[in-house]
Specification:
The chain is mostly helical. Helices cover 74% and strands 0% of the residues.
Length: 159
């Protein structure tokens, strides 16, 4: 049997992944020379920042509502960092090595990264304490909403 995580662990992972995503999008924003693409990456970074706030609030709720399970211990923060680093979003240093983006490529990249994050959380469902599965589902709902926002943006921009 694999590892089991508490809902609070998954929320900590979500906060860190959103921080990495925000840094990545801001690095892409700085690199581009296209005003529209710069605005898109700025928007995406702001959305990641909103998710950080949302997940931090949900983490507080999860701590208050969690049943203490003596058989499952919270995961070490360094382990969480190692688990999520580079998992979905490349490091901001890697963003600086990417080629310049056009608008269509920027939107497609963001969709791909957000879909990858959904796949990550789907996997986390299988590794989360059964008492906390609903907490992970809330993260998935937030991520799905983010994809819908990007798809709306894609439709509005006609790319």
């Amino acid at each position: 049997m694999g590892e089991t995580y508490l809902g609070t662990d998954v929320y900590k992972m979500a906060v860190e992944m959103e921080q990495i995503g925000s840094q990545f999008y801001r690095a892409c924003q700085q690199k581009t020379r296209d005003d529209k693409v710069e605005k898109i990456f700025g928007y995406l970074a702001e959305e990641e920042d909103k998710h950080i706030t949302t997940f931090e609030e949900l983490l507080k709720f999860a701590k208050e509502a969690s049943d203490e399970n003596p058989f499952i211990q919270p995961v070490n923060p360094e382990y969480i960092h190692a688990l999520v680093s580079g998992r979905v979003f490349p490091a901001k240093e890697e963003a600086m090595q990417l080629e310049f983006f056009n608008l269509k490529q920027a939107i497609q990249l963001s969709l791909t990264l957000e879909k990858d994050s959904i796949m990550f959380y789907h996997e986390m469902l299988n590794m989360t304490s059964h008492h906390d599965v609903d907490l992970v589902k809330r993260i998935l709902d937030e991520e799905r909403d983010h994809i819908l926002q990007i798809l709306d943006l894609k439709k509005t921009l006609k790319v």
